[in-house]
């Protein structure tokens, strides 16, 4: 009898040991906000200026999320997880920080100033915005799947010559990594950084990867819709500041307390400027092509076709239609996935195939934005909106 009990106890020991937590397994964070899966239909952008609705979706928890970094001081520009958290917070609040990369630069600083201005804090205050970001974005990284729709939006054979592109039906992404990076408002380099054990250039549908926990840009929800005037949005005022490379959008009624470039207010300002509702990084045109002045939004359309006119790009003068090429729509179109044309012919606010160049490279005359920012324009401004280029 004793021998039988001993054998039973010995058999139970490995089982008990297997149930004990191991200290060598990778740390996995809880994920509070779900991200898109392939078989989900995203919620389309609303036709009102309300905050975009996030899809209620699920995640694949198979792969671990990197361990949480130590918190940085609240009173300074954050680092590590806090830097990613702040960029996500500002992006969701419609104060674009540029590419989410965990390295807050000039665009993040401008976004912080805009947020402080709206909320009545000194423009250079980091405490309030860092505190709000930690409260709102508890998990800066999450796990997502590559959606099935990626096969319709990726074409590794997309040519680089404009004459060849004109023969295609779509200006697609050139790789799945590029698709996923733009979906989560970052670049391929950052995806590789937060997925060190993943072959980032070999992704395929339903692969799991870590991404910034930001509201995703769901390109598959775009249909080529054109937007008409709106009794609220058409009265708004957009200021394109070519000195700091930022567009700021203000309410029309009631009017904003001040419509000016960021930093023009006193650093001790404590009165909230609620008229400011959004700001985004931009790249203006070349100095010789910038059309300073006050214009009006004339048209607003998703997935625009682009008329490639070399003479217009070189001289600012339009050539005959027979001499131009017509480039199909898509994320790698020179005008990205959205066009907002102004009353000045040939000038508009639009997306870009190269979000990493926003604020650095100059365009030929238009106002370029990251596609994930440009797609928000019809929820903020419409035909009739005043656009001032300074």
What report would you give on this structure?
The chain has 390 residues and is α+β, with helices and mostly antiparallel strands. The protein has a domain at 233-389: Beta Barrel (L,D-transpeptidase catalytic domain-like). It is built from 10 helices and 12 strands. It has helices at residues 2-18, 80-92, 106-119, 127-136, 150-153, 162-165, 176-183, 188-194, 310-315, 371-374; strands spanning 141-145, 208-212, 237-241, 246-250, 276-281, 293-302, 306-308, 325-327, 338-342, 348-350, 367-368, 386-389. The chain has an 8-stranded mixed beta sheet with strand order 5-4-3-12-6-9-10-11. Strands 1-2 form a two-stranded antiparallel sheet.
The amount of beta strand, in percent, is: 5-15%
Count of alpha and pi helical runs: 10
Strand order in the sheet with the most strands: 5-4-3-12-6-9-10-11
Sheet with most strands = 8 strands, mixed
What is the H/E order?
HHHHEHHHHEEEEEEHEEEEHE
Output the CATH class name of the domain at 233-389.
Mainly Beta
CATH topology of the domain at 233-389, by name, is L,D-transpeptidase catalytic domain-like
Distance between the first and last residues' Cα: 93 Å
Number of strands: 12
Structural class: alpha+beta
* Helix share bin: 10-25%
CATH level-4 homologous superfamily of the domain at 233-389: L,D-transpeptidase catalytic domain-like
The gyration radius over C-alpha positions equals 24 Å
- Round the mean pLDDT to the nearest integer and report it: 83
Low-pLDDT segments, ≥5 res: 1-61
Shape: globular
> So, CATH architecture of the domain at 233-389?
Beta Barrel
User: What does the oligomeric state look like here?
Assistant: single chain
